[in-house]
Batch of 3 targets.
Target 1
Amino acid sequence: MASAFAGSAYEAGEIMGGLYGEGIIAHPGAFPAALADTLHAEIMALFAEARTVPGGALARGPERWYVETQPERLSAFPAIVSHPWFVAVCEAVLGRDYRIIEVGFDIPFPSAADQPWHRDFAVPEATTAGRRLNSLAFNMTTIDTRPEHGPFEIAPGTQWDVFDGCPKGMFPPADLWPRYAARAVKKLPRRGDISARSALTVHRGTANRSAEPRPVLVIGVDAPDATNGAHHDLQATAAYIDSLPPVVRDHLPARVVDALTPVVQNHVIDGLLTPAY
């Protein structure tokens, strides 16, 4: 397999410097806005479908929902995960045997509240002992984000913070909140932009004061030693797997099924159900 950096404009050092430093990087304008518009329509239809399935859509706070879906339900999935920047980021941080283990979307609707500061999961030993990131989360907005939409807010550099004994290893104690508020940066991506971050970098969704939902695609990727895939049911039909180019197929360890079934989620995060005040 050829490296993503052979003749590439994307430098491994710059990628790793951003993700090991601030904990988030982005490629503005990686895709045409029309791709994001199609993604928006598909996500909203999938959300309406998921609401009819018990466990199909999980609350992540007031008027905020998370849904996992199958890659083949999103027409742009192959184009997104085969983009040279996506491949270069995964290879630089996670190695050439990276695995796409999660495909879903988060939607804060009007009246969604500020979330508490959190990580997406507890810090693994690879990070605490090895000082290494072994997973990434990629995000793509489907609208041009404005401040009133309740943008994603992140505290750069906090992927290395230690706070023991907190719920699920995710929620820092209140005495650390001023640290995150002081470092907080609100992100205002536009249609066609893509970002990558460490899910350990402390972050939160903010209050949506607009009249519009703000859907965001989420793609989770693991290094070979990470175990996040155990929490997700990534499905694909054999025909879909066969249709994919190797740069996608080789990194998609999906459960092969004869027919897709609704993704029932069980990963309720109680700490996100109460807004932060």
Note: The chain has one domain: 18-257.
Target 2
Amino acid sequence: MRTRILALLLLPILALASCARGVDAPAAASAPTPAGALTLDYATQFSVERFSDGYALVHVADGRDYALVPEGRSPSTLGSPNATIVTVPCDRLYLAASSAGDLLRALDALDRIACCSTSAENYAVPELRRALESGAIRYVGKYSAPEYETLLSEKCRLAIESTMVYHTPKVREQLERLGIPTLIERSNYETEPLGRLEWIKLYGLLLGQEEEAFAVFERAKRTVDELTTKLDAGESRERKRVAFFYVSSNGYVNVHKPGDYVCKMIELAGGRNALDGLALEPERVSALSTVNVDWEAFYQQAVDADALIYNGSIDGGMTTLAELIAKNELFKEFKAVKTGNVWSTSLNMYQESSRIADAIVDFKLAIDGDESRPLRYLTRLK
């Protein structure tokens, strides 16, 4: 009831939101016609059909479509009746997907963000943290309970949500009821690391910065290509087994499903996923980007791994072996603990998604035990 009353009270403000369904605009001279597709090399969680006069139809793998309509042109769903109409180029963004923030930073587009659901102290990207601290970007509370009044007073025109919003569908419904269309960012469901980065092409399209987006992507692609070329040259060497994991407070071990982008990062870095042999329920594997496994199953697969990488994106990571062993004394029996080849990530590896090629290089150095230069995304536990 409170939400309904709020919507009625704020109706005058809704007229200001032009990035929504059914917004009136001058009539186009002719209906837009198909003009090819956006080139994607790795991403599978979205695709884009181009149309004449700058129109585009975005298909996201969750089944939702978005009709991108150039400002000043007639609204059109571009043949997809349920498509959400989004006026481009977009600004006044509400950012509720923290990993997307770094892609916007890479496009020098942080000034397009009006509101954010990640607080300054929880952002590892310095530029975003400073913008939040200065008030240039307003923190509006957690993604699950944003301050709708602030989103409207800040005239937010598009919400970029993470897949966590699937667990709070009423938030998405309320945003769209208030005239703020919602795009759910699914880059964490990509199976290729560069597929995750390739979402920058979608943001380039939304912001009118396609050329810059393609340039960022191509630079990262060259870095990865150079690394894999070197690895292919020494292909005869045996790949080291690497386990990437997180230990939850209830004792379960959280792992990335086989074949996802983190497992591919390990492969691109010259390693081999030590957890490929885990028996996982097929329906859970297809539905989630990570899964919980019991300690016994994890122990069996990882005890002889050459390297351990602790996923610190959830709890901030750790710096000592004692912290890891405190989670379970049996870690003392692990080969990687005995040899000292144990590492931890921090928040920045997940949040700095535009630098995924650099993270792969760090993985390569960690797997080889090479500390010839400081690593940005990994800390060796001592």
Note: The longest helix spans residues 210-233.
Target 3
Amino acid sequence: MADRGLIACFYALGRWYWDGGYLYAMQVLSGVLIPLAALSVPYVIWLDRRLVDRQDGAWAFGHWLMTFGRDFDPGLKPKLAEHARSWAIKGFFTAFMFSTLPGNWSAAVHIYPEQMWEDPMKLAEATVALMFLVDVSIGTVGYILTFRPLDAHIRSGNPFMQGWVAALICYPPFILMNGGGPLDYGQGQLGWEAAFSDHPLLLPLWAFALMGLTGCYAWATVAFGIRFSNLTYRGVLTNGPYRFTKHPAYLSKNLYWWMASLPVLTTTGWWGDAARNTVILGLISGVYYWRARTEERHLLREDPAYADYAGWMAEHGAITKWFVKAARLGKARVDAVVVASAE
């Protein structure tokens, strides 16, 4: 209960939680606060009798509270830190996921079928909105159902500060990519609709490509099911789009941004704006590459199975295998030159 109380205090102190989309999240969480508090007591009692290791992170946190930090067993510090990371992740991202649901739902239901038949842009808008709705819905469920009886609990939170920084700058209130932020790549943006409005063949092809990318993005989340969450290890996933690349969500999302925004095309017509938008979007893609690397570092630390998966993907992944082949070809040529020189 104490850990939930700390999260509630964080919600109460954060002004951004009581405005805009976050207000919906606070209304939902406030409405279920008392029932969840009442149900948590029998749940903890029931679960405690079935745990193999009863001295888990929750136990370590309770022990720390009961001793007021004095005479606390230093051997329990890793469990206490892990418990704190897991609940910080759950508290931060659960509210965010709830806050995104109304906007995505509204976007998905306010485009009518007759509009989609007549206009490929409307079809693309509706499909993209629906895919993002699927993504945030599954994500919300994933953060809620972090229960041991479902084998969906957080096994570990990312222990690396770089991982937290890379992730948090992609979400409010720390987000850097929003309008007016330092990584806002949309200044004077023309966009794909205006760019291809006079190209009746290219317009629908581009629209279907964007729909495919958002479909892949949603598929990556659906593949996780109730185990979806950021900054956590909840098992290694190798099915769905993860059969083709280690980071299908990041890859499809970034490709979508590049294709939808077309940063080199601006309404101002000035090359400086185009260059600025392109460089900034490149920096955003770099942030997601950074996130991917820190997540891999975390998973490699937690599960040897991920090392096997990463090794297999390097050889057989839809993208990485070409880099491996190119590297081997380059090495073979260098070796051939060295041998020829020696002769």
Note: The beta strands are 156-157, 232-233.
